[in-house]
Design goal:
The chain is α+β, with helices and mostly antiparallel strands and 79 residues long. It is built from two helices and four strands. 28% of the residues lie in helices and 28% in strands. The longest helix is centred in the middle third of the chain and has 12 residues. 28% of the residues are buried.
C-alpha cells in the first residue's frame, strides 16, 4: 500500500530494534492532531509485523507500508 500524502512528522528509527521503533512512534503520534500523519523509517526485521499489530491495537490506521532498499517505510494516521 503506497501513499503520496504529506506527513506531518517524520521518525527515522533505522538502527533501532524492538521495541524502540514502536515506542518512539507512539510518543510522536501523541504530539499530532487528529488526522495528521507520521512517517516512520525502520530497518528492524520485526518492524512490518510490529507496525501492523500496533495500528490494529491502537486504532491508528497504517496508511502506507512498503519496503524500500534495505529499510521499511510506514505512515500512520493519528486518530
Amino acid at each position: 500500500m503506497e501513499s503520496s500524502m504529506e506527513s506531518k512528522a517524520k521518525l527515522d528509527a533505522r538502527g533501532l530494534f524492538c521495541p524502540m521503533p514502536i515506542l518512539k512512534a507512539s510518543e510522536m503520534l501523541g504530539t499530532l492532531g487528529r488526522g495528521e500523519h507520521l512517517e516512520v523509517l525502520a530497518d528492524d526485521p520485526a518492524a512490518p509485523s510490529d507496525f501492523v499489530a500496533f495500528a490494529k491495537r491502537t486504532g491508528n490506521p497504517l496508511v502506507a507500508n512498503e519496503e524500500k532498499a534495505g529499510f521499511y517505510r510506514f505512515v500512520l494516521e493519528h486518530k
